[in-house]
Design brief:
This protein is an alpha+beta fold. The protein is 53% helix and 8% strand. It is built from nine helices and four strands; from the N terminus they run H-H-H-H-H-H-H-E-E-E-H-E-H. It has a four-stranded mixed beta sheet, with helices on one face. A hairpin with a 7-residue loop joins strand 1 (152-157) and strand 2 (165-167). The radius of gyration is 18 Å and the shape is globular. The model has no long low-confidence stretch (mean pLDDT 93).
């Protein structure tokens, strides 16, 4: 069995995807080129203040400014090579266990941001260990991102089928069905690009999406 669930392999896949496109290539991240995305990834691991702005709104402007500084000041190929080498020696991402927890799906999603943003929708080889890990992550993401949903949401994995994960309550139900890794993409906000089937009444689906976007 392949080992694509390891964060080092996801890092390599992301860097390979970045190296395969021009720095101006579009991505699934609205308004970002591949160069923007590479700057974001590098800053996240090597600039704690800029990284904080990814989740802390008061620092978001600083983070956006730093992304532009890195994008304009560091050649794209050098930036991709720096990401491939890994974080700086004193980065918290060097701590045992941190990379696996923080980067496996960060890099998986960003790899698809680059590939699918550039028009490559060819599925990557599926890895059973990654899919099992993604199934657990999808359940956690759903409980977080859909906590305000006024409708119940069921997650169904395609292979192997089993008990769905139910999130939320309500008289209406929306079902999201697909490979766990694609469910992760969907719940990370890449709804249009994720290979996920959505079942439910249009009004219920719209209500779920509105809640996810809050």
């Amino acid at each position: 069995m392949s080992q694509h669930h390891r964060p080092s392999d996801q890092r390599a896949a992301l860097c390979d995807a970045l190296a395969a496109v021009e720095p101006t290539a579009p991505t699934l991240c609205e308004g970002w080129t591949a160069h923007h995305l590479a700057a974001h990834v590098w800053l996240r691991e090597n600039d704690p203040l800029a990284a904080a702005g990814i989740v802390a709104k008061p620092l978001a402007l600083h983070t956006a400014e730093r992304i532009e500084e890195v994008r304009s000041g560091q050649p794209y190929t050098e930036l991709v090579d720096a990401i491939r080498r890994g974080p700086a020696r004193l980065s918290p991402f060097r701590l045992p266990g941190v990379e696996a927890a923080a980067n496996t799906f960060e890099f998986f999603v960003h790899c698809e941001d680059v590939r699918r943003g550039a028009g490559d929708h060819t599925p990557r080889p599926r890895d059973a260990a990654l899919e099992n890990l993604a199934w657990r992550r999808a359940a956690t993401l759903a409980r977080l991102s859909l906590r305000r949903s006024p409708v119940a949401v069921w997650l169904e994995r395609d292979v192997p089928r089993g008990e769905p994960v139910r999130v939320g309550h309500g008289p209406d139900i929306v079902t999201l069905s697909g490979p766990p890794s694609e469910l992760v993409l969907y719940l990370f906000g890449r709804r249009d690009a994720a290979r996920v089937e959505v079942f439910g009444e249009p009004a219920a689906i719209a209500a779920m999406i509105r809640a996810a976007d809050l």
